[in-house]
Amino acid sequence: MTEARGSAGPNGTPCWVSLMVHGLTTTQEFYGELFGWEFQPGPQQLGPYVRALLDGHEVAGIGQLPPDRHLPIAWTPYLASDDVDLTAETVRLCGGTIGVGPLDAGDAGRLAIGSDPSGAVFGVWQAGVHRGTGISGVPGTPAWHELLTFETASVAKFYETVFGYDEEPVVSADLDHVTLQLAGRPVAGIHGVGSSLPRDRGPHWMTYFQVSDTDDTLALLTALGGHILEHPHDTPHGRVATVSDPEGARFSVVRATP
């Protein structure tokens, strides 16, 4: 590590979301049309990589996989850390793994990519000049991150130990759900769904993007070559649907309730 870096928020704050794909240009076209994103290249240390902008604010990142890497195409949330090297070591000590890094992304920051004990992949970001997503609460921005896993008890303990979360479980006989909190503020969720997990995916993080109208977004998404995986339904948090882009990356869209 070279110099002291800034923070993208308290440890554990979801601060960025990134997608690695095979077709970088076609993926930019898809999300540009869907969410109104524009793109800027860099950081160069991450290879072919662009940052999505909304009204000039950074929202998300999209990178290109090497042709010989056949990894799952998935949106990956990055959780803030004041010391990514220490966080990576804690991940290992708590039964997780670190697959990439820690490594510097120029002066943008320092990162690692790991997985929890159930295999769900997440990133860790120590901010330099890039402090993460710069706008929220408007269509086209990440609204929520939820871990879909077999059961919450053991994996929630992992995230609480590594990132210092408090948890607020849902008291219900038929719902296994925990809300992860920092300083009393909900920042992410863990949903135990047992055998309902997709067999081809296993435990994974799901990013929810805010939209102005869920049904209109789905019509545009399918016209652009995306797919509807779970049809829209109303929830206490808004109208939600689960979808995938043309390369198969899953995400959800939500029209927040007023």
UniProtKB/TrEMBL annotation:
Residue ranges crossing the lipid bilayer per the database entry: none
Domain VOC: 13-127, 141-256
Taxonomic superkingdom: Bacteria
Pfam families: Glyoxalase_6 (PF18029)
Protein name (database record): VOC family protein
Organism classification: Bacteria, Bacillati, Actinomycetota, Actinomycetes, Kitasatosporales
